[in-house]
Amino acid sequence: MTGGKVVIYVILNMLMIFLLFTAFFAVFTKNLLNSIITLAIFSAILIVIFVILQAPDAALAEAVIGAGLTLTFFVITINKTKDWQNE
Amino acid sequence: MSRVHKIFRKFYKIGLVLFLAIFLLFIFDEIQNLDIKRYLSEHYISEGVQETGAINLVTSVLYDYRGFDTLGEATVILTAAATLSFMTPIKKVKMLGTEFTIIIYQTIIIIIPFLVVLGMNLIFFGHISPGGGFVGGVILAMIPILVTINYGITFSENKLKPNHKSLLEGIGAIGFILLGLLGIFAGSNFLASGQANFGLGNPGELISAGLIPYLNLMIGIKVGAGLAAIFNSLIKEG
């Protein structure tokens, strides 16, 4: 492998490890708002992985839906439901 | 005994996830090593551009070979938006209690025209470059969402009434089905564009690929209006 490929390979594997960390944090944290923000970070890392794997279509869909729309919907839903801070 | 029980309760979820991951790893390894000839994917890759006229093979699969599945996805959003609109209270409900600084107000005013151009670009060039009707529609749906968060629900509903959103969504859904029926009138199957001899044009030009750009436009209108209606219903709820 040439130098550029090694760099891409290392970055890809580091991003996958971060993906694992964010996924575990989003599942196991007690605060719902933290979980939602972590899911957005998860989506952002996944976008970079999709671009490295040469899937720009999936990256666009993930960027718009995963990082933008679901975050908005989840935040508004949590804001509308009561007593989420006391748990 | 109780200490073991405590440790077990703490770690059994992680163990479950790890077990499932290893299980899936073995399954995918088996699938990778199976000796199957992938006729269909080879056919799509080698013949897709000639048969559908779309350079973007993802779009050619989504809107030509598997157009019926796209109709199903559109129906899901239509059903969700219709149900949420039905459950929305008519009275005006107070918005999120957040006040933004002037930086955010001015930034959102500047961003909105760019969002219009980006969404339209993704919709109209869906068969040439990455993107497509769904992604472009979601970006267009971001505009009413930003206006609502910025200026409140009253201003947003004055600018774009909920009835008009529902009308736009209906136009998108019915237009998609009517465009699909064109394939039957041309003597082929439902939602056929490449097989029905619609004049595919030169691959790579804007007006080419038969019905795919129009189907993209309909899906974009439908998804954008539907998600805006869903957001409107969610923010007025309770």
TrEMBL record, chain A:
Keyword vocabulary terms for this entry: Cell membrane, Membrane, Transmembrane, Transmembrane helix
Family annotation (Pfam families): MbhD
GO cellular component: plasma membrane
Stretches assigned to the MrpA C-terminal/MbhD domain: 17-82
The keyword Acetylation is assigned to this record: no
Cellular localization per UniProt: Cell membrane
Transmembrane segments: 6-28, 35-53, 59-78
Lipid bilayer topology: Multi-pass membrane protein
Principal location class: membrane
Listed name of the protein: Uncharacterized MnhB-related membrane protein
Biological classification of the source: Bacteria, Bacillati, Bacillota, Clostridia, Halanaerobiales
From TrEMBL, chain B:
Membrane-spanning residues: 12-28, 71-90, 102-128, 134-155, 167-191, 211-235
Keyword match Transmembrane: yes
Ranges for domain Na+/H+ antiporter MnhB subunit-related protein: 107-228
Annotated localization: Cell membrane
Coiled-coil stretches: none
Keywords assigned by UniProt, alphabetized: Cell membrane, Membrane, Transmembrane, Transmembrane helix
InterPro entries: CPA3_antiporter_subunitB, MnhB, MrpA_C/MbhE
GO annotations of cellular component type: plasma membrane
Superkingdom assignment: Bacteria
Principal location class: membrane
Domain MrpA C-terminal/MbhE: residue ranges: 34-83
Family statement: Belongs to the CPA3 antiporters (TC 2.A.63) subunit B family.
PANTHER family assigned: NA(+)/H(+) ANTIPORTER SUBUNIT B, NA(+)_H(+) ANTIPORTER SUBUNIT B
The protein, known as: Multicomponent Na+:H+ antiporter subunit B
